Amino acid sequence: MPGPAFLTGETVALRTIEEEDLEFLQTQVNDPAIWRPIGNSMPLNAEQEREFFEEAVCANDSIHLLIAVDSTPVGTVGLDAIDWRAGSGEVGYWIAPDHHGRGYGTEATELVLEHGFDQLGLHRLSARVFAFNDGSKRLLESVGFSEEGVHRDAAFVDGEYHDVHRYGLLEEEWASA
């Protein structure tokens, strides 16, 4: 059972990530449909997933939430590298392959953006997407992000170099959308 709901939308609830969620997370991040788009080319065992939980999920400069639909975990969304002085952070997300195409990622991203801008007082959020990840590009653009540039051959994923597209969204752009 996922942790308590932190943010709720029409379809998804964003819940705290708890120890009992680690098996779901480890299973999903080892699926090529997930690790390839997030650029994690190394397999993760249970101990490594626990380390991620203890070091990243429990850190003060990030927010990692489980996306749940009717108490079923379907993915994660969060804000990383929060710089409180600059008022910036980076949004990241993934949805389990069995749940792609249902709008869960879009709704979860909107909820975390609203929280970042309206509750945390952030001014700018960014995102990185590999050139081959058209679905993620569409998601970011649908919630108001603008492509700001391309870092050529900046990532080595699945045996090849790939361009990394950089996206950004300012607080006033979010508020006017």
From TrEMBL:
The keyword Transferase applies. Keywords: Transferase. Gene3D superfamilies: 3.40.630.30. Residues 12-168 form the N-acetyltransferase domain. One of its GO terms (molecular function) is acyltransferase activity, transferring groups other than amino-acyl groups. PANTHER family: GNAT-FAMILY ACETYLTRANSFERASE, SPERMIDINE N(1)-ACETYLTRANSFERASE. This is N-acetyltransferase GCN5. It comes from Natronococcus amylolyticus DSM 10524.
